[in-house]
Write a structure and sequence with these properties.
heterodimer, A: alpha+beta, globular, B: 5-stranded antiparallel β-sheet, 5 strands
């Protein structure tokens, strides 16, 4: 399965994760919902919706953890009749990342969890240590958005 | 059966010489439901992979017209992985060292399966 990435260092770890876990869709993103890599999605609108929803879910669970006066939840999962989702936070030297995986009945939550833990380690080892430059201007934002969509979908 | 009873039943399995650990795993999800393991065994990894192997073997025996496996014995270089399907979509998995008494371990695993129902 093809992995498209804005950040090339994410490609190999995600590719290995997909090969081992048999996940159907994978998104690697920042907690703000900015996508760094994707696999399995065919439409930009799906990626944007999924990343926004996943970031929202993690933000909500962070608040629940705060209400419980405990550390953030590391991962959450839902199992449906046809598909399951696994949403995990992992730390890298540059920034925390979220990984959303959608899997079918050809694999299991346990396998996805297992290989997601390995993915977290590999992302942490692969991530560059220098901080990413922040772009704040509107024209930069639009240019970066187009560059990201090109990288993620090859348009 | 409650969690305490399940853990007690699993402890009985680990009393068999050279059994390193016993766990109950959900067959579909491959996640641990209950466990009694020696320190150092990665229960999540064993549960996920053992459940996957059990399902693949069930597909294989099904395709061969043999029905579902009633007992799985996977002999390895340094020990064995044993699995017995139980009710409620669960699988009992045992990790054992070399020269384990497989028959005795199987009997104890079947007792756990009966307890689960």
């Amino acid at each position: 399965m093809t992995v498209r990435a804005v950040e090339p260092w994410t490609v190999e770890p995600v590719r290995r994760f997909i090969a081992e876990s048999q996940a159907r869709l994978v998104l690697v993103m920042t907690p703000a919902g900015q996508v760094l890599a994707q696999s399995g999605f065919t439409r930009a609108v799906d990626v944007m919706s999924a990343s926004a929803l996943a970031a929202g879910i993690v933000a909500s669970t962070d608040e629940l953890a705060a209400l419980l006066r405990q550390a953030r939840f590391g991962a959450l999962s839902h199992q449906g009749a046809l598909h399951g989702i696994h949403l995990m936070r992992c730390d890298t030297p540059r920034t925390p990342l979220l990984v959303l995986s959608v899997f079918g009945r050809n694999t299991s939550l346990g396998l996805v969890q297992l290989f997601a833990e390995q993915l977290a380690v590999e992302l942490g080892e692969s991530a560059p240590t220098e901080a990413r430059p922040r772009l704040a201007l509107a024209e930069d934002f639009e240019r970066e958005l187009h560059q990201s969509l090109n990288a993620l979908f090859g348009t | 059966m409650n969690v305490a009873e399940l853990n007690t039943a699993l402890e009985q399995v680990t009393q068999v010489p050279r059994v390193l650990g016993a766990m109950v795993v959900s067959a579909d999800e491959g996640i641990v439901v209950g466990e009694a393991l020696m320190e150092g065994l990665q229960s999540n990894a064993v549960a996920a992979l053992a459940a996957s192997v059990s399902q693949k073997l069930a597909q294989t025996t099904g395709a061969a017209g043999l029905g579902s496996p009633s007992f799985v014995h996977l002999a390895a270089e340094n020990g064995a992985l044993l699995a017995v399907p139980a009710g409620l979509g669960l699988v009992i998995v045992v990790v054992a060292g070399r020269d384990v008494n497989v028959g005795l371990a199987r009997l104890e695993m079947l007792k756990v399966a009966e307890t689960i129902g």
